[in-house]
Specification:
By secondary structure, the chain is of the alpha/beta class. It has a single domain, classed as Ribonuclease Z/Hydroxyacylglutathione hydrolase-like (Metallo-beta-lactamase, Chain A, 4-Layer Sandwich), CATH 3.60.15.10. The protein contains six helices and 15 strands. The N and C termini lie far apart (42 Å).
Length: 256
């Protein structure tokens, strides 16, 4: 059975003094006649997601399954337009989202309210979503984080969400942010590297691990265009600051 993995929107790690853009990777898996979307991104990218689907002659209603790696707002705010889809989430993640830890600003209980009104299904490690597509539990970044393991004719790729947030995750041994448990996050990185050498991370371009776990990117956009939303022809208040490389930067917030 033919299987294809496509990126609808590429993830970027992009923050400002006014808050994070939260631009996460949204992937499309096509397995036979099945159309599966992994993560749905933040509301700010809804028009871009709609455009990406239409460029492939698809509408939200054509997607039969949505898999949410976790329930941070930047990965799931656009789930509601997928009205015909089964929505797959880990039960631990769903339970936490219904009553998030006080002060956890990345998880909002309204997300759980939205999902409870949809065709919600709970999935765990090893569950098969379609032929050659299965769930991999990867907790740590969040309590019930999951990845999606895809068999591509003998080679397995992993749509990893924020358990493998970026290309530096392997060298650090941990994703860029940890909101739940540091040990679980480290164990999940080891588990993912054991399972696959090709990753679609949450906030970086797809990459392959070569010899000695060297990261080799597989292509994608390398710049962001800033445009004037007021149509004055001028962008006057944009300042870019280069932050330390993520290979050397571990930013962790432990909640539990």
């Amino acid at each position: 059975m033919a299987t294809n993995v496509d990126v609808l929107t590429y993830g970027f790690a992009y923050a400002s003094d006014q808050g994070s853009m939260g631009w996460s990777t949204i992937s499309l898996l096509e397995v036979g006649g099945r159309k599966i979307v992994v993560d749905t991104g933040p509301s700010s990218r809804r028009p871009l997601l709609n455009q990406a689907l239409k460029s492939r002659n698809l509408d939200f209603e054509d997607i039969d399954t949505v898999i949410l790696t976790h329930l941070h707002w930047d990965h799931c705010q656009n789930t509601d337009p997928f009205r015909n889809a089964r929505i797959l989430v880990h039960p631990t993640e769903m339970d936490y989202a219904r009553n998030p830890t006080r002060g956890d600003l990345a998880t909002s209980s309204y997300i759980a309210d939205m999902l409870d009104k949809m065709k919600l299904e709970l999935v765990s490690d090893g569950d098969e979503v379609a032929e050659g597509v299965s769930i991999l539990e990867t907790p740590g970044h969040t309590k019930g984080h999951i990845g999606v393991l895809v068999d591509m004719g003998g080679e397995k790729i992993l749509v990893a969400g924020d358990a493998m947030s970026d290309g530096g995750t392997v060298a650090r041994g941990i994703p860029h942010n940890v909101f739940w448990d540091l040990k679980d996050a480290r164990d999940s990185v080891e588990k993912m590297v054991d399972q696959s050498k090709v990753f679609y991370p949450g906030h970086d371009l797809p990459f392959r691990l070569e010899a000695d776990n060297e990261v080799s990117y597989l292509g994608g956009p390398t710049q962001i265009e800033v445009v004037d939303s007021n149509e004055t022809g001028k962008v006057t208040a944009v300042t870019f600051k280069v932050n330390p490389g993520r290979l050397a930067n571990i930013d962790t917030v432990q909640k539990g």
